[in-house]
Amino acid sequence: MSHPVGLPLVKVKFEVPIYGGTVRAFSDKNELIKAYNKLSAREKQSSDSFPDVECSGMVFPTISKDGSLDFLVGVFDNDITTLVHECGHLAIFVFEQIRCEITGDTSEPFCYLLEYLVRQCKPLLTVATTE
Q: Per-residue pLDDT for 114 more than 60?
């Protein structure tokens, strides 16, 4: 799935408080691919090339130069459900990074993190949808 025609391209960058990491989020798959291709082999989580798949969104954990876990996020269809879905993956990756299992006991911090990630990535949605 490519970026909807006629909508502005949006990029967002922010830090993940408390848990660490930087998120770079994109509304356009080609922009996300450019960012991914600029990463060194050490920064990528695998040696695979960028997956050539049709999708509405995706998340890639990456390793920054200082060794922390950073993330590339894409939401390509301007849909709130895709945004929440990808932020769910992102929150899970963050909790894996800090070695915290998601359970009933950790669900409150997980949900606050998910809420924060959605709020920070919401500018990727460039127009209101009626669905």
A: yes
Cα–Cα distance, 4 to 24 (Å, whole number):
20
Asked whether residue 1 is domain-assigned, the answer is no
Structural domain for 103, as ranges: 11-124
Q: Does residue 30 lie within any of the structural domains? A: yes
Q: Is the pTM above the cut of 0.85?
A: no
Contact 118, 84 (CB under 8 A): yes
Residue 24 and residue 11 in contact, taking contact as beta carbons nearer than 8 Å: yes
Tell me how many domains the chain contains. 1
Cα distances (Å, whole numbers) of residue 62 to 25, 79, 126: 13, 25, 26
Q: Is residue 24 one of the residues assigned to a domain?
A: yes
Which among 3, 19, 6 has a CA at the least distance from the CA of 78?
3
